[in-house]
Amino acid sequence: MNSSSSYVITEDGDRQNMYACEPRSYQDPNYAGYAKEAELANGRWAMIGFVAGIGAYVTTGQILPGIF
Q1: What is the rounded distance in angstroms from the CA atom of residue 63 to the CA atom of residue 55?
Q2: Which domain holds residue 49?
Q3: How many CB atoms lie within 10 A of CB 9?
Q4: CA 57 distance to own-chain centroid
Q5: Which is more confidently placed, 1 or 42?
């Protein structure tokens, strides 16, 4: 397989395949731990939801009050 330019590839029999150019990735130099804070917040919301589900089951006897 021969390459005639960076995104057009010439195969056997002079067939050309054109591939899309992927954009370069950009990383913000001021990125400061957003992922860690987001994971902590998601974990806390999950704990609140779990405790609320147990509280609803204890008080009503149903898993989802009004549905089950």
Answers
A1: 10
A2: 33-60
A3: 15
A4: 32
A5: 42
